[in-house]
Structures are given as structure tokens and as C-alpha cells.
Amino acid sequence: MSISADRVDTVLQHVGQAPLNPVTGTGPVSLPAVRTSTVRFASMKAHDQAQMARHAGHRVATYGRVGLDTHEAFEALVCELEGGQRAFLAPSGMAAISMTLMAYLSAGDHALVTDSVYGPVRAFHKSVLARMGVAMDFVAPDIDSLQAALRPETRVLYLESPGSLLMQMLDVPALVRWAHDRGLLVVADNTWGSGYVYRPLALGVDISVLAATKYLGGHSDLMLGAAVVRDAQHVRALSDTHYALGSTVGADDVWLALRGARTLGLRMQACGDHALQVCEWLSAQPSVRRVFFPAWPHDPGHGLWQRDASGSNGLLAVALDFDRHQARRLVDALRLFGIGYSWGGYESLVSLVDPETLAQHSYWRSLSAGGLQAGSVLRLHVGLEDAADLLQDLESAFAAV
Ligand SMILES: Cc1ncc(COP(=O)(O)O)c(C=O)c1O
Fold first, then answer.
1. Closest C-alpha among 382, 363, 378 to residue 163
2. What mean pLDDT value characterizes the chain?
3. Which residues contact 124 (CB under 8 A, 6 or more apart)?
4. For 314, left (φ over 0), alpha (ψ -120 to 50), or beta?
5. Does domain 264-400 have CATH number 3.90.1150.10?
6. How far is the CA of 94 from the centre of ligand 1 (A)?
7. Residue whose CB lies within 8 A of the most ligand 1 atoms, among 89, 101, 191, 207, for a mutation test
8. 273 class by beta-carbon count within 10 Å (0-12 exposed, 13-18 middle, 19+ buried)
9. Which residue, judged by its Cα, is nearest atom 15 of ligand 1?
10. CATH topology agreement for domains 5-261 and 264-400
11. What is the pLDDT of residues 224-252, one digit of tens each?
12. DSSP 5-26
């Protein structure tokens, strides 16, 4: 295990504290949500100094769009978690992804994308990047496949580990070595790890993007994204793109995310513990063909998870021999798992995975070629409810089918 969870938990409680009033020596524990459109300067000298610092690339707010203290506190928290120099906020995880790809890709460039990434990245390429002359290939996350798709104009390797839907662990350090040897910038979606149980920047990745909508916010009541840069040399491109795109985040949402993040560790540990119990239960059911959860010792990614991750969370997938109709009946029979697409909140959720989306994943195709026969795949987010109640809910729903 590579990260000291104790240190992270301490950091989560102390980053972004409210300053004390220098006259009275008192202040609130929780930093308020500082909402503004306009920054006021004490004098022209202060104005000039602020502008100069901003032009030199420092995080100095001269206008409300980049956000003031609340935003800065959350950026600092995400930098601490991920081990980065600077963080840039975006109104959603997807907005952080699109902002980052636009910062480092130009007309004529090509990017390699591992085929288990969050699905809408494909839509972003199809409807926006392709129109702007950026090519992208979605390939199996192994070096032979990447090498075969490499072009002279390839600039970026974009990956996600564990991958979306089937939680496929990637050998990120090996992929990074391969990419850096070829001069590529490596960007990783770290929504799963959220800087707490997995830290791609420590594995060599250059930029980590994440949806704070999920575990960081943790309460299913906000949308927020962040892109975290490891090295100073990559800050400028993202800083300029972030500013130029003009997408800003309301202080109230950032404040909620900051509040949620204080309990990130407790929530992730509890969800991960409950999910492991759900895996054990599921694996004993005759209708279950396969459970996908890297912290589970029978998952093929378990070795990489042991090497590179320091914990887990509540997200898992299960392949069933139920056909679509039976799977729909199962989902409808669940009482505690709400039907919904998101994850990372306090509550348990279930969704039926679209077979066409699954077929885009080489991992799924290779499992099917290897003999895995499943009629349907469910994704479960196992939440903070009592684990015994969740198991009972699953038991009665399976019995109903
Ligand atoms: C792995 C992953 N990355 C990014 C996103 C996008 O986040 P948002 O919904 O905040 O745009 C999601 C959302 O489901 C996700 O699962």
C-alpha cells in the first residue's frame, strides 16, 4: 500500500480552514462560501501587483470567474489528495475532462484513449474534437495495442484505472513509461480513486481529472470536476484554457464539496467494506457468472490493486446469466438500491449496463471470447446503509426472479 491513509485523513480536516480575524483572534471553523463576481482592490498598487502575479501564472483572483477563498481551499484540498501543483475546477467531471483535452490537443493532433474510459469521452470526441480536427483512437489498454495505434502526431494518452463499468485495473506505471518514452502527455480519470484510494500522479501520470460529483462531494447533491496538474511545465496550458473557456463553478457547490470531502475517508472505507460483503454474497449465487471488484481477491486486477491502490470504494459490477427481462425484474424488485446512473454518494444505486457500451470494451470482448456467458451486467454502488439490510434486499430480489 503506497499511501499513508492517516496523513490523508489529517489533511482532509485541516486544508482550507477559515482564517482567524487578526483583531479579535476568533473565527469560524468552517470556511464560508465566498460568492462574488467582482474582486475589489485596495489600491492601484495592489491591483497592479495582483495582475502581474496572475500573468506570471500564480493563482491570484482578479475577477470572480476563477473563484475566491472557497474555490482556492477546495483546489488546495484536491492538490493535497492527488499530489499535484495546481488544480482547476470545472462545473462537472465531464467539463474537467473536456477542458483538459482541449488544453493539450490542437488541430492535426491524435490522442490514444484506453477503451474502458467513461463513455461520454467518446461522445466528446465525436461531436466536438473531431470537428476541430483532433483524431482519437479507443484501444485496448495494453502496450501492443497502443503501439499499433501510435501515430507520428499522437500527443496524449488518456486512460482510466480502474476502467468504467468493469473496474479493469490498468498497469498505469508501465503505460506511463511507454507513453513518456514517446513524448506523450498522460491524462488519467481518477474519479474512482478520488485521490484517496488511488493516486495516478504518484504512478507517473501528468494530469489527473476527476468528478468531485462522486465521492468527494459524496452526498449526491452537486456537480463538480477538477483537473490536477503534477508538474509546473504543464500548468500554463491548462490555466490559459480554463480561463479562456469561461466555465465557472458557484461557490455554494464548491462549499458543499469541501464539506463532503472532510468525510471522504470514512465514507469510502465504509462503502468499500459493504461492497466486499456484497461481492462475497453475490459470488455464492448460482445465477452470478462473475463479480468485478478489484479489492475482491478473485478479481483478475487484484494484484495491481494491491500494488497501486490503498483502499477501495462501493462500486462494483456483476455479470448474471439472467436475460434482460429477468435482470429488469431483479432491478425492479430491489428496495434499497435506487435505480440511477451515478455513484459515490451515501446511497446504494443500481443500473443495468447497456450491452452496446460493454461491447466497446476489449476486456469484455476477451472475457466473452474466453467463455464467459452472461445475459446481463448490473452496476451496483454499495452505499452506507447497514450491510445486513443490503444483503437482505439482494436476497429477496434474487428470490423474486
Ligand atoms: C469515471 C467517471 N468520470 C467522469 C464522470 C463525469 O462526471 P460528471 O457527471 O460530474 O460530469 C463520471 C460520471 O459518471 C464517471 O463515472
1. 363
2. 96
3. 94, 97, 98, 101
4. alpha
5. yes
6. 6
7. 191
8. middle
9. 118
10. no
11. 999 999 999 999 999 999 999 999 999 99
12. HHHHHHHHHHTTPPPPPTTT--
Per-residue cell: 393: 434486499
* Gap between the Cα atoms of 34 and 217, Å rounded: 18
Ligand 1 binding pocket (C-beta < 6 A) is 92-94, 118, 160, 164, 189, 191, 211, 213, 223, 225, 342
For ligand 1, atom 16, name the residue with the nearest CA.
Answer: 118
Domain-by-domain residue ranges, the chain?
5-261, 264-400
Q: Please answer whether residues 95 and 242 qualify as being in contact, where contact means their C-beta atoms are separated by less than 8 angstroms.
A: no
Task: Scan for cell 465566498, then name that residue.
Answer: 34
Amino acid 392: pLDDT: 98
Q: What share of the chain is helix, strand, coil (3-state, %, to 5)?
A: 45, 15, 40
- Find out whether 262 and 254 touch, Cβ atoms under 8 Å: no
Question: Which atom, in ligand 1's list, is nearest to the CA of 225?
Answer: 10
Residues labelled as active-site residues? 65, 118, 189, 214
On whether the CB atoms of residues 163 and 157 are closer than 8 A, the answer is no
Grade residue 180 by pLDDT with cuts at 50, 70 and 90. very high
CATH number of the domain located at residue range(s) 5-261 in this protein: 3.40.640.10
The DSSP element (H or E) to which 147 belongs, if any, is helix 143-149
> DSSP states of 186-230 as a string?
EEEE-TTTBTTTB-GGGGT-SEEEEETTTTTT-SS----EEEEES
CA of 284 to the centre of ligand 1 (A): 31
E strands within 69-201? Answer: 86-90, 110-114, 135-139, 154-160, 185-189
Cα separations in angstroms, 304 against 2, 172, 214, 318: 12, 9, 23, 20
Q: Residue 283: enclosing H or E segment and its boundaries?
A: helix 264-283
